[in-house]
Amino acid sequence: MRLRANPNRMQLLRLKRRLLLAKRGHKLLKDKQEELMRRFLGVVHRARDLRQEVEDELAHAYRAFVSARFEMSGSAMEAALAFSQRIVELNASRERIMNIKVPNFAVEFPESAEFGYGFADTTAELDNALELYAGVIPKLMRLAEMEKSVQLIAAELEKTRRRVNALEHILVPNLEETIRFIGDRLAEMERETATRLMKVKEMMRDH
Amino acid sequence: MSKIAFIGDRDSVWGFKAFGVTVLPAAGVEEAQNAFKAAVQQGHAVIFVTEDVYEVCAEQIAEYRDQALPTVTVLPSVKGSRGIATAEIHRAVSAAVGADILSVSGDN
Q1: Sequential pLDDT tens for chain B (108 residues)
Q2: Where do the domains of chain A lie, and which CATH numbers do they carry?
Q3: How many CB pairs under 8 A join A and B?
Q4: Does the complex come out with an ipTM higher than 0.90?
Q5: Residues of chain B contacting residue A143, judged by C-beta atoms under 8 Å apart
């Protein structure tokens, strides 16, 4: 589609400058898109594998926990869980990947610390179950971090892709068409002037 | 205060209490929505939700989709996984790439 512009030299120059800018922007965005895609594919495959792993391990831990629950009274369980000393420390920060803010979680885990509850009224099953939970928690954090990155990079990629397409398929062709049109018009006008001058000259000679 | 919260049915979330995770047992729809609101207001960086909670809180959760924090992650409950999180990743991929490349490579 041709843009609305008066066919004169001023407009022609302006449009040519805009075309140059649009092309440069397109190239930059295209580079950005490629780099985003590269990172995206890297993280998305890892996220999928980790998700699978976490779901399997978590199902395992759940089973152990539920069977431990059957062996203990509710109140003893409540007390045991409340007195546990293995508190997970989480340091959450934001990290920038290509100007996208993604979360970064550092988990601090007292790996060797005892559960703080007494041995008398808890069962070995509970210990086992909690051990499984302990193994899965750092992975949960990694998973949360990675899936969030996937979401954020995906959104950014989509936005970038739209922009690249808009430049490539709409703005640049429109500018080129308009520039060609104005160029043609100017050449036509020049020829018109030349013939008119020649005609006038001829008429003057006849007199 | 803990920066991790877990919202879901009692059996799923309970065990995490031993690790200092804020557990918010939620049974009904309203309870889940209130729990999610509370978890955000208390400034948790990571909020885990079970698939059931994710479904009833989808609108609330979508508000935080574009922010780095809080991060909301779906986990299976004791009843097992229905693959909601995996579907979510697939959706993100097809939106970003224009084709669901994961399921293609998954078939191989």
Answers
A1: 568 999 999 888 888 888 888 999 988 899 999 999 999 999 899 999 999 999 999 899 999 988 888 899 999 988 888 888 888 888 888 888 877 776 654 443
A2: 27-199 (1.10.287.3240)
A3: 136
A4: no
A5: 73
Residues 6 or more apart whose Cβ sits within 8 Å of residue A64: A125, A128, A129, A132
Count CB-CB contacts under 10 A for residue B97: 18
Question: Are B18 and A115 within 8 A, CB to CB?
Answer: yes
A137–B19 CB contact, under 8 Å? yes
The CATH architecture annotation of domain B4-78 reads: 3-Layer(aba) Sandwich (3.40)
Interacting residues of A127 by C-beta distance below 8 A, sequence separation 6+: A115
Measured between beta carbons, which residues in chain A are less than 8 angstroms from residue B89?
Answer: 44, 47-48, 51, 147, 150
User: Would you kindly state where each structural domain of chain B is located, as residue ranges?
Assistant: 4-78
d(CA A98, CA A92): 19
Tell me if A59 and B80 make a contact (CB, 8 A cut-off): yes
